[in-house]
Amino acid sequence: SVVASAFSACGGGGAGFWQLPVLSFFGRPFAMGLATHKLATVARGVGATLRHLRESRLERRFVLFILATGVPGVVLGASIILQVPDRAAQLALGVLTLSLGIYSVLQRELGQQHCPKNRTGRGLWWGGAGLFVIGMLNGSLTSGTGLFVTLWLVRWFGLDYKRAVAYTLILVGMFWNGAGALTLGMLGEIQWDWLPALLLGSLLGGYLGAHYAIIKGNLLLKRVFDVVTLLMGIGLLV
What we know:
mainly alpha; 10 helices; single chain; globular
């Protein structure tokens, strides 16, 4: 949990790449592992927020827009995943993980300059639709959706990487994952005896990862991320 949360806080997403497959390998049903992981990652969002709020300035209207378009998708996705057989969900997670790994290897540069765009009219509507779809993935398959949000904020809305990571960690980490955990907890089952260790690890890892990202950057961690993502995706498929 510490490693997954620290890595996610550095790269702007990806805790599900590490933590959810491990929970699945422990032999628990996919939906139970997903619900438990979601609840634990809320603590990661809290830990990262404590560090990022000292460095970042968030736009209030843009914050509300991300929440309003993403949270409904999270709730819908979390409701759908409970109807999917465990093996099918694991295969889908493997394909998504492997695809994101390949994309990450090819994508060497993310946003380096803050150039806001698509904040009005049709561009804003399309951006909201994209966040809704990512929200559905966040509620159902969870793996890498934080990274999807980061990339979407960079590519579509023109944020630089540092700002995009801050939005992702705070809004996705706490609010999107909180909504998903609540929905899955009401409709499914959570492994409650795992939570103390997972919550503590997520809180500590989230703070440490955000701190390291702010003072050091994440080039080395991105390379590790590429390798681990590809291996984890292959492992889930096999």
